[in-house]
């Protein structure tokens, strides 16, 4: 995809000639639209309190290997407006 400053906030950091479908470990970040805090804002005892949206994201993350046999999951964290995770592609 060509960088368009009217649409994109920053340039991609993807390697242009790399095949991201090949086996390997990938650090993935997904942000909410307009970086809206949809996954919780309330903090109690130093931990963000789960809301229904965050529970859905967590369930979807954990369900990925059931849909894609070649996917293995590692650590992930859900922040108020984005998700970070490590995915292993094993094929």
UniProtKB/TrEMBL annotation:
SUPFAM superfamilies: Transposase IS200-like. It comes from the Bacteria. Coiled coil: none annotated. GO terms for biological process: DNA transposition. GO terms for molecular function: sequence-specific DNA binding; transposase activity. PANTHER family: REP-ASSOCIATED TYROSINE TRANSPOSASE. This is Transposase-like protein. It comes from Candidatus Nitrosoglobus terrae.
């Amino acid at each position: 995809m060509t960088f368009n400053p009217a649409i994109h906030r920053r340039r991609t950091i993807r390697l242009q000639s790399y095949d991201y479908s090949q086996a390997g470990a990938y650090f993935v970040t997904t942000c909410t639209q307009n970086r809206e805090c949809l996954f919780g804002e309330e903090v109690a005892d130093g931990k963000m309190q789960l809301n229904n949206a965050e529970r859905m994201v967590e369930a979807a993350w954990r369900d990925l290997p059931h849909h894609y046999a070649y996917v293995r999951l590692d650590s992930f964290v859900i922040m108020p407006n984005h998700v970070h995770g490590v995915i292993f592609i094993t094929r």
